Amino acid sequence: MAGFSNNQIENAISEAMGLLERLLKAAEKGGRIGSMIEILLLQALAYETLDNISSASVPLEHALALAEPEGYIRIFTNEGVPMARLLSNTASKGIMTDYIGKLLAVNEVPSSSSSSSSTAGNLIEPLSQREQEVLQLVARGFSNREISERLYLALTTVKGHNSNIFGKLQVKSRTEAIVRARELGLIS
């Protein structure tokens, strides 16, 4: 972090850790597993930023234990290289190696900046036939309502398909979905 001293960075991370600890207690009290996992991952990444891998392993292992039964994947893979390093380190200790293996395999999927020779086979999970139909109509400029009328689906179903498409393509908007789909050869 250019422009900041190590002391400033450590102080900021220390303050963030205090906040994360309070948020974790509230999430635990409310039984919000997803929030707990997110907070634990943030704690692990904060320790990783400080090169304190041994401390990072404690919240990471807790997050893994909560996430595996629920099948969480993207929450880990979205964190990129720092998380991949932490996961590799944890697996090297023989902890949850099967689950971590799945997470690391997903992390190896090429990013959207990969070469144009990418194919739909690079998707974490392939699009269903209906999702492909919705994506084609999105690419043609149809609104959700128009797609719903054209495919005889409820508007909420179309929105659900869009959400699934965004997740599978690892994008956050219709425009990004179209660009990514073209890169993968899903649409022309």
Description:
This protein has helices spanning 6-30, 33-49, 53-70, 74-77, 80-92, 97-107, 129-139, 144-151, 155-169, 174-183. The chain is an all-alpha fold. It folds into two domains: 6-107; 120-183, Arc Repressor Mutant, subunit A (Orthogonal Bundle), CATH 1.10.10. The longest helix has 25 residues, at 6-30. Residues 108-119 have low confidence and may be disordered.
Task: Give the SSE map.
Layout: H1 6-30, H2 33-49, H3 53-70, H4 74-77, H5 80-92, H6 97-107, H7 129-139, H8 144-151, H9 155-169, H10 174-183
Helix pairs in contact: 1-2, 2-3, 3-5, 5-6, 7-9, 8-9, 9-10
The succession of helices and strands, N to C, reads HHHHHHHHHH
Strand content bin: under 5%
Count of alpha and pi helical runs: 10
Count every beta strand, where a strand is a DSSP E run of 2 or more residues. Answer: 0
Largest sheet: none
Specify Rg, calculated over alpha carbons: 20 Å
Task: Average the pLDDT over all residues and give the rounded result.
Answer: 84
Shape category: elongated
How does the helix and strand content classify structurally? mainly alpha
Q: How many discrete structural domains?
A: 2
Question: Whole-Å distance between the termini?
Answer: 41 Å
Q: Give helix % range.
A: over 70%
Low-confidence stretches: 108-119
